[in-house]
Amino acid sequence: MKGKQNPYLIVGLIVLALGLIYFLAGYVVPRVLVSLTKAAPASKVSLANSRIIGEIILAKADGKDKCVVNVFILDASDKGVAGRGIVLAGMENIFPAAAVTDSSGKASFSMVSSEEKQYEISASVDGVELPKTVKVTFRNE
Predict the structure, then answer these.
(1) What is the structure's pLDDT at 3?
(2) Which sequence spans correspond to the domains of the chain?
(3) What is the pTM for the complete model shown?
(4) Burial of 66 (0-12, 13-18, 19+ CB in 10 A)
(5) Residue 132, Cβ neighbours under 10 Å: how many?
(6) Omega into 96 within 30° of 0, i.e. cis?
(7) Model confidence pLDDT, tens digit, residues 64-93
(8) CA 43 to CA 61: how far, in whole Å?
(9) What local confidence, expressed as pLDDT, does residue 102 receive?
(10) CATH level 3 topology of 51-139
(11) 86-122 in b/e burial notation, b at 16+ Cβ within 10 A?
């Protein structure tokens, strides 16, 4: 029996090799590729690409119902810029008074009014005003 090899040993080695290949292809290689190709975080603000968007732009003028405005600070390739100071202007009762953008470049604000009126809201990033505005309306109908 010197010339014969154990078929179970051969099958076992093949299964072990396939398992190792599966592990490398499914776990190790993708992690290495992600770490090698990870982009640097965005840091330079593009005023033209940044946005001020009304999430809720119509509310009751009862001093309780809220309008919500989101500001997205983006770079030239439309990636969010984190850690930038945002201030809204255009009316009283904006909460928070100032905010810092999150990892996606977003800062959210809410506002209330007891007066029936339409307000034009502008945003500033690090003291520089964005070129676009958004209108929010409070009414009692």
Answers:
(1) 57
(2) 1-38, 51-139
(3) 0.70
(4) middle
(5) 13
(6) yes
(7) 999 999 999 999 999 999 999 999 999 999
(8) 39
(9) 94
(10) Immunoglobulin-like (2.60.40)
(11) bbbebbeebeeeebebeeebbbebebbbeeeeebebe
**Which stretches of 24-57 are DSSP H helices?**
29-37
Residue pair 48/82 in contact (Cβ under 8 Å)? The answer is no
Alpha helices in the chain (DSSP H): 7-23, 29-37
Pair 121, 133: CB distance under 8 Å:
yes
For the chain, the C-alpha Rg in angstroms (whole number) is 28
Name the residue type at position 35: S
Write out the two tokens for 121: 């809201």
Over the stretch 21-62, which tens digit does the pLDDT of each residue have? 777 777 766 776 666 555 556 678 999 999 999 999 999 999
What are the backbone dihedrals phi and psi of residue 100, each rounded to the nearest 5 degrees, phi first?
Answer: -115, 135
Nearest CA to 66 out of 51, 82, 52, 54 is that of 54
Q: What whole-number distance in Å separates Cα of residue 51 and Cα of residue 68?
A: 14
